[in-house]
Specification:
Helices cover about 5% and strands about 40% of the residues. With about 240 residues, the chain is mostly beta strands. The chain has two domains: about 1-175, Distorted Sandwich (Beta-galactosidase, Chain A, domain 5), CATH 2.70.98; about 185-235, no CATH class. A hairpin with a 5-residue loop joins β16 (about 200) and β17 (about 210-215). The radius of gyration is 19 Å and the shape is globular.
């Protein structure tokens, strides 16, 4: 088991972005970059990469798809770029129509996180960053961490933690993209099965209504093994 840390490149502001590779006892490798505390790759011992990522700084800085990034403070959409907490309405930056997506224009994915700890004994690396109310307009100064661990059972574990000096919202996620057939293969040809008989209803602006709809017979029905591309073809819109 090894953990290597090297320089990946520099941001326009001169910050050094770090590249981390964690290798487990089976020879599998987890690749990470400090920009956005991003999951960059997952290479099997046979050399097959199952995760989409970039190999250059410029692509991470100009990434409209949050590819591999940690996103937050809140992953997903906040309607009308505002929310109420403790009797106060907080107004955020709208970065997708009238809504706030993944924490707004200045969010976790747009920061170069520091490497807080490297734990070679446990094959783990912890990234840390701080968000202030002046940056993203969420209440409080929030200190947050995410630890990536690659176990010898070939599990990748992500553990989030945070402290804030004021009540706030915190619902981050990893925006990783997988292709289980390996990069270069057409993921639409893969088969998917989900033990899910219902799916969330979404408004046209992709905000969930909270209503659960029956999946059977729809593009969201994967209760039996179904080719992903076949269900994509059923979609009447581009919204999932």
């Amino acid at each position: 088991m090894t953990v290597s840390v090297t320089d990946f490149g520099n941001t326009p502001a001169g910050e050094t972005i770090k590249h981390v590779v964690i290798t487990n006892a089976n020879g599998h490798q987890l690749g990470l970059v400090s920009w956005g505390a991003s999951w960059q790759s997952f290479k099997t011992a046979a050399g097959v990469d199952l995760v989409l990522g970039f190999n250059d700084v410029a692509s991470y800085l100009d990434n409209d798809y949050y590819l591999g990034n940690i996103v937050g403070r809140v992953g997903g959409r906040l309607g009308q770029a505002k929310f109420d907490l403790n009797g106060t309405t907080y107004h955020l930056d709208a970065n997708e129509g009238a809504n706030t997506l993944h924490g707004g224009e200045k969010n976790f994915s747009h920061k170069n996180w520091e490497i807080a700890t490297v734990d070679e004994a446990n094959n783990s690396v912890t990234f840390a960053t701080t968000m202030t109310e002046a940056e993203d307009h969420f209440p409080g100064t929030l200190k947050t961490t995410v630890a990536y661990t690659l176990t010898d059972d070939d599990e990748v574990k992500l553990d989030f933690g945070a402290t804030s000096d004021a009540d706030t919202l915190y619902n981050p996620t990893s925006h990783v993209y997988f292709n289980m057939a390996g990069l270069g293969a057409d993921a639409r040809e893969l088969e998917l099965q989900l033990n899910a008989s219902r799916h969330l209803e979404f408004r046209p602006d992709q905000l969930p209504t909270g209503k659960l709809l029956e999946a059977a017979g729809t593009a969201f029905d994967f209760q039996t093994k179904t080719k992903i591309g076949d269900n994509i073809a059923k979609l009447e819109t581009d919204a999932f």
